[in-house]
Amino acid sequence: MILLDSSAWIEYFTKGPLSKEITHTIKSEEDILVPTIVIFEVYRKIKQLVSAEEGLIATAFLSSFDSIELTREIALSAADLSSEHHLGMADSFILATAQHHNALLITLDHDFIKIPGVKVLKRK
Asked: How many domains, the chain?
């Protein structure tokens, strides 16, 4: 089970340098989780970079995977993770969601570099 964070999805949708690796990951994994905060971040960024229409197309694609709502338990865990790892709110919610569901978090965000259960993709 995997959870791609917003940076990975944005890389995928904008066909960035790591999009082929992310595409392979998406096609090879059956269980992909998408927290609602990732939907927010992806839509906002794709709308800003490309267009609102492309943002909606991206969110429609994300909706084909298991959407995970923010729960009280995840919110409390996120608060603890934020303090422990000095993460912002969105990153903390995403990490807490991945941990709650025992999913591997895949990201391009180097703020996660030393956190167990996270794979940070690096641009070459």
From this structure: 1
Domain holding 31: CATH number?
A: 3.40.50.1010
Cβ within 8 Å of residue 22, ≥6 positions away: 4, 8, 9, 11, 12, 106, 121
Neighbouring C-beta atoms of residue 93, cutoff 10 Å: 24
Q: Name which of 99, 66, 68 is nearest 82 in CA terms.
A: 99
- Cβ-based burial of 35 (10 A; exposed 0-12, middle 13-18, buried ≥19): buried
pLDDT at residue 30, as a whole number: 84
**Other C-beta atoms lying within 10 Å of the C-beta of residue 99:** 19
Amino acid 62: pLDDT: 96
